[in-house]
Structure prediction request, 168 residues.
Amino acid sequence: MRRSRLAYLPIAFPLLAFAEIMTFLLVAHAIGTGWAVLILVVATLAGFALLRREGIRGWHAFQDAANAGRPPGTEVSSSLIGLAGALLLAIPGYITGVLGLLLLLPPGRTLARRGVERFAQRNLGSAVTGNLFGPRRVKVHPGAPVTVVVPDDDPRPPAAAIEGEIIR
Prediction:
């Protein structure tokens, strides 16, 4: 029987809390307790300020995409990742703060957005994700044409041709 990933949360949260405490103690030992606490307070306040900014930015990006007739999935997923990064930064802790910063910086946000899109496509299907993120981008490698041989005694009727065009 396959367990849900949510079943691991009661184990993950205490482990994260233990790791955060140990990281705080290591940082406090290295730079001093006062500086360690000051860094946590500044990071938490910055996280709360970024939560508001990312939320407003995400809402405006969603409205712009909807008004332009574009699928809003990319803007929504990017803003949700920004919100998640700001929330992780707002949680007091060095590990969550570093993870939050990684999600807020452009390279980390792009990687996380692609991961969210792949996850959505894998779990929701291409019909739903096509409406959210736009049409799939398929790489076509030129090569020898493929020939399909159908036996004469095949009882199935021939499939209907699908009209389409290639856009570069």
Summary: Residues 5-133 form one domain. The helical segments are 9-31, 33-68, 73-90, 94-104, 106-124, 126-133. The CA atoms of residues 74 and 133 lie 6 Å apart.
